[in-house]
Specification:
By secondary structure, this protein is an alpha/beta fold. The chain folds into 2 domains: 61 residues, DNA polymerase, domain 1, CATH 1.10.150.530; 286 residues, Aldolase class I (TIM Barrel, Alpha-Beta Barrel), CATH 3.20.20.70. Strands 12-11-10-9-8-7-4-3-2-1-13 form an 11-stranded mixed sheet, covered by helices on one side. A two-stranded antiparallel ribbon has the order 5-6. It binds iron/sulfur cluster. Iron/sulfur cluster binds next to helix 4.
Length: 356
């Protein structure tokens, strides 16, 4: 059995875990014990799974990949945001952990942002990941393992997962959906606490609509007209704004779920009040929430919008009846934007671990 053929425990749903356990000559109930170690404890060392018989632990070590990722870098920002760089046998993956609020028992909400591809083929003009191009798809097991490793390392239960890291989830649809179901059923994160973010792959939106899941779908718009969006989000040439809106209308009709519109504000490019008005006209009566994201400077030609223009953009949308929030910038001083940490690491620039 080669390494690539070995099952990856974090990618196996309950029925396949049970089949694995039975194939190893163990009673079926061992699958529940194994699932607890992997999906609840985040344990990737068979020898540490103390309630499993020694012979079965040895069998696991010889026949499965308990974990496939190794932590290469971890940085923590002053606001508690942690950025992780994981190594895989053919590439590196970025993931981010964001705690919100501080109750007596720790943060009220802990959101993990995970990657669905190594690199990305969409090539958005302002994105460090897009600049580096596409390398490979990430498996469902690797997506789930990102969550489990961050949870174990941080010592906080992850309450929300956003598929907003490196990659376009709908260009890796099957593995992404398998990860959604594993996170929901095996890890125990509510479907409404999962968010898929797409750059606007219309066939993916239509396919997801037919699944009628209660997750949140976020669409990255970033420009209110096709001419500008062709430049910023090149996939627009294939799926222009009119087609995208139609797919969003169908999505809402099939799922009853309000969508999120993501809009990165770039200084003097897409952040003027007339562009806010054009965005409002494009949204029309579609029930969406607009997330305005102040640009987190990458090594591109774009700059961050001044706060007054961000405020004005939001006010135009709200005055037209579209709920809009400005996303608080998280972890900017630790290369918070998607793809930046990985890029620096792979270019051999210093990225030390620990507090920034
Ligand atoms: S913003 Fe998202 S879709 Fe666009 S290039 Fe970056 S990772 Fe890909």
């Amino acid at each position: 059995m080669t390494e690539t053929e070995r099952p990856h425990l974090a990618g196996l749903p309950a029925d396949r875990l049970e089949a694995l356990v039975v194939a190893a000559g163990q009673p079926g109930y061992r699958a529940r014990q194994l699932a607890r170690w992997v999906f609840k404890e985040g344990c990737f060392a068979p020898e540490a799974m103390s309630d499993l018989p020694a012979g079965f632990r040895e069998w696991l070590a010889a026949h499965v990949d308990a974990g496939r990722l190794r932590l290469l870098q971890r940085r923590e920002a002053r606001d508690g945001t942690r950025k992780y760089l994981f190594g895989h046998r053919d590439g590196t993956l970025e993931s981010v952990l964001m705690p919100y609020g501080e109750g007596l028992d720790g943060p009220d909400r802990v959101t993990a942002c995970i990657s669905t591809q190594v690199g990305c083929a969409v090539g958005c003009a302002f994105c460090a990941t897009g600049l580096a191009g596409f390398q490979r798809n990430v498996t469902a097991g690797d997506m789930v393992e990102q969550v489990l490793r961050m949870q174990a390392e941080a010592g906080h239960r992850i309450t929300n997962v956003v598929f907003m890291g490196m990659g376009e989830p709908f260009l890796n649809y099957d593995e992404t959906l398998a990860a959604v179901h594993l996170l929901n059923k095996s890890v125990g994160i509510g479907m409404r606490h999962l968010t898929l973010s797409t750059s606007g792959i219309v066939p993916g939106i239509r396919r997801l609509a037919a699944e009628r899941l209660q997750l949140t779908l976020a669409i990255s718009i970033h420009a209110p007209d096709d001419a500008l969006r062709d430049r910023l989000v090149p996939i627009n040439r294939k799926y222009p704004l009119a087609d995208l809106r139609e797919a969003m209308v169908d999505y809402f009709e099939q799922t009853g779920r309000r969508l999120s519109v993501e809009y990165v504000l770039l200084d003097d490019v897409n952040d003027h009040p007339d562009q806010a008005r054009a965005l409002s006209r494009w949204i029309g009566d579609l029930p969406v929430h607009v997330n305005l994201i102040p640009f987190n400077a990458t090594d591109t030609v774009f700059r961050t919008s001044p706060p007054a223009r961000v405020r004005q953009f939001r006010e135009v949308l709200e005055a037209a009846g579209h709920p809009a929030t400005v996303r608080r910038e998280r972890g900017a001083e630790i290369d918070g934007a998607c793809g930046q940490l990985r890029r620096r690491y792979e270019e051999g620039q210093p990225v030390e671990s620990g507090k920034a």
